[in-house]
Design brief:
The protein is α+β, with helices and mostly antiparallel strands. The protein has one domain (2-158): 60s Ribosomal Protein L30, Chain: A. The protein contains 5 helices and 5 strands; from the N terminus they run E-E-H-H-H-E-H-E-H-E. The longest helix is centred in the middle third of the chain and has 14 residues, at 75-88.
Length: 159
């Protein structure tokens, strides 16, 4: 039996030289993420996709942004929790597709690094992970560099 999961996450950006975390990779950026946790939008969307694939609630239920216990939390902990839920329900992860929507910085120079890290984090081969990146075409909050978002889709199957 196969299940598909879908996840989405969005965070505000603030103009300030710094780094963006994407799959735990620190990407130099003219913007920083405003977030309760470490703001790794890719791992948040992926975690939501994993949880949805096995009928679980979204990460906000498990890791509320109103809790001091989750303040500055590593998104890696959220991903590990989500992967454990998939395994606990008797499923294995087959593949993952993520699409990062961000105006700046351009991600082309970092895509290989992000993909390699994601393959490692998910214990998946290269052909089972796809990293896509797009811009907001200078429209709306994404295009005006006020926010970034990520979409993720996963396929899981019963062990």
């Amino acid at each position: 039996m196969n299940h598909v999961g879908f996840g989405y996450d969005l965070h505000r950006l603030r103009k300030e030289e710094g780094e963006l975390l994407l799959a735990t990779c620190a990407i130099p950026s003219p913007y920083v993420v405003e977030a309760h946790s470490d703001g790794d939008v890719l791992l948040h969307a992926l975690s939501n996709a994993l949880l949805s694939s096995v009928g679980e609630e979204d990460i906000g239920v498990y890791f509320p942004d109103t809790s001091s216990a989750t303040l500055n939390m590593s998104s890696l902990e959220i991903l590990e929790f989500s992967l454990a839920k998939v395994k606990e329900k008797g499923y294995i992860l087959n593949n993952a597709v993520v699409c990062i929507n961000l105006e700046k910085p351009k991600l082309l120079p970092y895509r290989k690094q992000i993909k390699e890290k994601l393959c490692q984090l998910l214990s998946l081969d290269d052909e089972c992970v796809s990293i896509q990146a797009t811009t907001g075409e200078k429209l709306g909050p994404i295009g005006n560099s006020e926010a970034l978002c990520c979409y993720a889709t996963v396929l899981v199957s019963k062990e």
